[in-house]
UniProtKB/TrEMBL annotation:
One of its GO terms (molecular function) is catechol 2,3-dioxygenase activity. CDD domains: VOC_BsCatE_like_C (cd16359), VOC_BsCatE_like_N (cd07255). Its EC number is 1.13.11.2. Pfam families: Ble-like_N, Glyoxalase. This is Catechol-2,3-dioxygenase. Coiled coil: none annotated. Transmembrane segments: none annotated. It is an enzyme of class 1 (oxidoreductase). Keywords: Metal-binding, Oxidoreductase. PANTHER family: CATECHOL-2,3-DIOXYGENASE.
């Protein structure tokens, strides 16, 4: 993991907040299966961390939440970035030993595992290859979906045991279903200032700040014109983007305003929504 992509001058994802149907079930999953730790908990909400201090994930239950909507905009997956390949090997063996159904891929820039939480929210757990090995052409980074070298990853183990996620695990990126890529590009690039690092068949965009392969993914795989997810369904509640400083955040807010996108302060947080209804906390 190269921290340069997750500190100033980068803009990156800090936290993810999910609505879940059963808080106890989700806490058990995110602690026992994923390996996060609860650092705050109330009757209806829990905040989870890898290092015991820094919040990464908040899960919240209300009495009216229904199952995750199908064929709607919203979360495709959020991604937990591990510091190295050995950490990925530990997670891989742990999940396999528990019989967890996994997807897996080599993306050239990274190696990744995929799974779902009990509500069907997608999770990626991955490690980056060193950025000096990434291949760029005309401002676009080479990424693909190749088979994962599972034997090579597990060969990293030398009797090492899984003990939860490493303390320096962070949110690497968020990948969203959107209903229109052009509108999403308008919002995230022209408004929030991200740059396109990959454009795949006019069905997916990968966006970055400061030369990362992607801090955000956007796709229309649920179909163009997919409706916004309902506030009454399990799924993504909102996620946080961290800007380098208040000036950069305020400049982004002003650009959004000029493009016709508003923002509001809720519980001392500045919140906007992308054209597909995905809520974004703008912080620094």
């Amino acid at each position: 993991m190269e921290s340069v992509f997750f500190q100033s001058p980068s803009t990156y994802v800090g936290t993810v907040e999910l609505n879940v149907q059963q808080l106890t079930r989700s806490i058990q999953f995110y602690t026992d299966v994923i390996g996060l730790r609860v650092i705050e908990q109330t009757e209806h909400k829990a905040v989870l961390s890898a290092d015991g201090t820094r919040a990464l994930l908040t899960i919240e239950q209300s009495s009216f939440f229904q199952p995750k909507g199908k064929s709607t905009a919203g979360l495709y997956h959020f991604a937990l970035l591990l510091p190295d390949r050995l950490s990925l090997a530990k997670v891989y063996k742990h999940l396999a030993d528990r019989g967890i159904r996994l997807g897996a891929a080599d993306h050239l820039v990274s190696e990744a595992l995929y799974l779902n939480d009990p509500d069907g929210n997608g999770i990626e757990i991955y490690r980056d290859r060193p950025s000096k090995t990434w291949t760029w052409h005309d401002g676009k980074v080479a990424m693909t979906v190749d088979p994962l070298d599972s034997k090579g990853i597990l060969a990293e183990l030398n009797g090492d045991q899984w003990e939860g996620l490493p303390a320096d695990t962070i949110i690497g990126h968020v990948h969203l279903h959107v209903h229109d890529l052009d509108q999403a590009r308008h919002f995230y690039c022209d408004g929030l200032g991200f740059e396109i690092t990959s454009d795949q068949l006019n069905q997916a965009l990968f966006l970055s700040s400061n030369g990362y392969h992607h801090h955000l993914g956007l796709n229309t795989w649920q179909g163009t014109d997919a409706p916004p997810a309902s506030d009454q369904n399990a799924g993504l509640k909102q996620y946080t983007l961290l800007f380098p400083d208040q000036a950069k955040r305020d400049q982004a807010v002003q650009r959004l305003k000029e493009l016709g996108y508003g923002s509001e302060t809720v519980d001392e947080q500045l919140i906007t929504s992308d054209p597909s209804g995905n809520r974004v906390i703008l912080a620094f």
